[in-house]
Amino acid sequence: MKILFAGAGALGSRFGYMLFKNNEDVTFVDTWGEHVEKIRNKGLKVIIDEVDLGNFYIPIYKPEQISGKYDVIFVATKSMQLRPMLESVKHLFHEDTKIICILNGLGHVETLKDYVKEENILIGVTVWTSGLGGPGILEAHGTGKIELKQVKEINLDRTLSLVERFNDAGLNIRYSENAFQSIWHKAGLNCVLNTYCTLIDCNINQYGSFEKNLELTRAVLNEVTAVGRAEGIDVKQEIIENNIKNCFPLETAGAHYPSLYQDMKNGRLTEIDYLNGEVSRLGKIHNIPTPVCDVITLMIHSKEFINNNK
Ligand code: NAD
């Protein structure tokens, strides 16, 4: 089974390494020249829980250099890079190529449907985390899990055996009927913490220490919940609020600056259009006003613009 990681950044290289180490046929494709060169010439340096596990020569290409057909494509770019990436690797799909997508945010199924049949889309959400310590260097901590669902549930056998095989490598995937609910719950949390921490310029603990944080949280979540329900998802606002509260203590995620905060600080474009921006877009379709998400999306874009983020 030929597995391609399309986007071999923080998360892609972590999962790719786990499968490669378990003797799977893994290939990386990435547009970042320095990263590609480093992995090709010196191997991917893997540091997990501060332990240097060595360098791993996982085949890696730029999209224009790669050919052949792949059975599974694990997409692992940022949300706004998903469509351009799919365009550049679509020649690598065959009739039954499965795509696994655990990107943060909302709306990815619509994009993926333009490239493969719905029964070949495995959509989900993960709480694994990962980072890069520079080109060619994977630095990660802890463990995690993945919830996954085949969008159109016909011929599930291949998906279930894929899940089993990936679990042999430690990915800890659970096939879940509730994956869409979990995607919305995680997106709801990100619509609150990613954006407010970025706009207020604080970590999660500092956000939680403001006595009226629940007012801010609910201003966003009331919209997320209404729009999610209009989409047919059983969004449970109290679960999202609780998940957010559980992040506040320093011993959980309190000291953490969310990924959108880090993207903003590092001069990169953010995933806002797939969080609050997608809630606004869907709100318009369902005639649900989303003034808070509208303004937050504009504020994040204005900050990207002023910072000249790319
Ligand atoms: P990343 O920026 O580290 O990796 C993305 C990679 O995709 C980069 O190496 C980039 O060069 C590559 N890329 C961009 N355009 C491409 C293209 N056209 N073709 C091929 N490669 C291309 O991002 P990440 O942190 O790995 O995040 C990926 C997704 O996973 C995001 O949606 C993120 O929100 C989500 N996520 C990340 C984490 C985490 O801890 N890193 C945790 C949960 C979810």
UniProtKB/TrEMBL annotation:
Coiled coil: none annotated. Transmembrane segments: none annotated. The keyword Manganese does not apply. It comes from the Bacteria. Pathway: Cofactor biosynthesis; (R)-pantothenate biosynthesis; (R)-pantoate from 3-methyl-2-oxobutanoate: step 2/2. GO terms for biological process: pantothenate biosynthetic process. GO terms for cellular component: cytoplasm. Its EC number is 1.1.1.169. Gene3D superfamilies: N-(1-d-carboxylethyl)-l-norvaline Dehydrogenase, domain 2, NAD(P)-binding Rossmann-like Domain. The keyword NADP applies. It catalyses: (R)-pantoate + NADP(+) = 2-dehydropantoate + NADPH + H(+). This is 2-dehydropantoate 2-reductase. It comes from Gemella haemolysans ATCC 10379. The lineage of its organism: Bacteria, Bacillati, Bacillota, Bacilli, Bacillales.
